Amino acid sequence: MGDGGDGGFDAIVASRRDDAGEAMRASRDLPPGTLLVRVAPFAAVPYPDEMRRSCHGCFRACGAERECGACGVARLCASCAGCETTKAYHAYECHALARLRDGERGLTLAHNDLRLLLRVLSVRRRHRDVVASSYATAASDAAAASGDVIVDDVDAFDALMSGVDGGDDGELPESSIAMLHEVAKQAKFLVAAEARASVDACVRTLGRLQLNGFEMTASASEEEEEGGRGGGGGGGGGGHRPIGVGVYPSAAMFNHDCAPNAAQRFDAFGCVRVETTRRVRKGEELTIPYVDVMLGREERRGKLRKNFAFECACARCEREAG
To answer: How far apart are CA 243 and CA 220, in angstroms?
Structure first.
């Protein structure tokens, strides 16, 4: 892990916290703006409005001429269209996207959780057939060419909490798990036969996506300057436009705090960059915002309870309780 130097990402070290499992801590004194990790998406999908202008592989601008002739939904830029891994991902979900486009069983492309589940199942199916060196897509290869990047595998995704089994796995409310079951049952008739998984496996996958997903955002200034995507994360506002949702296992290891000392943003390759926002002392826990920290205490806590299944007891929440 590290600060963006040639030596890799070495500014953080993993530790344990009695009340929150894994905790990431500073391995040395860190100045503001230190790059802690840069992580390629394990799986990500654009929001419906972005489908008409973004590549489904790397999220970069992509014209209508790149639209898939079979599903009429996905677009792949020249680089992703030439990448066997990216094409394989789409092949497993192509027919499902066409059915969502046509509104079968009342389902539409607006069901982002369902589309992200389909992408994860496609990624998992592809990973079964290739060696680790073939996991990378055109997007992650391009990201690696521009600097150090972590490319997570299936094992890293499976190590995330699902909220289904309790204990170290987290504990989503029964009502939330029931909703995940409904989505999982809907996926069963959509997903390609070769990428299918049991309903229980899909429920756990959906739980991991809910508890560990990042909303991808774009900054207009960065789009103009870099011709790509950028922004800040965690639902934190800051003038950034939401463009999609993805899961980044290595970045999901940072705990939340309502007064965090680090923040996430997205670069032109769809990678999440976690950087310090103030000076951090060696040994101090590194935290990021899961929700907009400009919200009031009760609204923040309500969103964290609903979306991430925990009661926030950070120092700021305790201080604002009175």
So the answer is: 12
Residue span of the structural domain in which 235 resides: 12-320
Is this prediction's pTM over 0.90?
no
Per-residue confidence at 63, pLDDT binned at 50, 70, 90? confident
Give the CA distances from residue 176 to residues 180, 183, 214, in Å, rounded to whole numbers and listed in that order. 6, 11, 18
- Number of structural domains the chain divides into: 1
Residue found under tokens 């599903």: 71
Going by C-alpha positions, the residue among 14, 8, 71, 40 that lies closest to residue 216 is: 40
46 found inside a domain: yes
Domain contains 5: no
CB proximity list for 27: less than 8 A, separation 6 or greater:
1, 10, 11, 12, 13, 282
Residue 96 within any structural domain of the chain? yes
| 6 occurs within a structural domain | no
User: Measuring CA to CA, which residue among 207, 293, 292 is closest to residue 252?
Assistant: 207
Q: Which two tokens stand for residue 275?
A: 């950087």
Alpha helices for the chain (secondary structure H): 78-81, 84-101, 112-129, 138-145, 154-158, 174-190, 199-212, 220-226, 297-308, 315-320
276-311: per-residue pLDDT in tens? 999 999 999 999 999 999 999 999 999 998 888 888
Dihedral sign (CA 122, 245, 95, 198): positive
In tens, the pLDDT along 37-51 reads 999 999 999 999 899
CATH number at residue 316: 3.90.1410
Q: What share of the chain is helix, strand, coil (3-state, %, to 5)?
A: 40, 20, 40
Q: Give the dihedral sign, CA 129/162/151/63.
A: positive
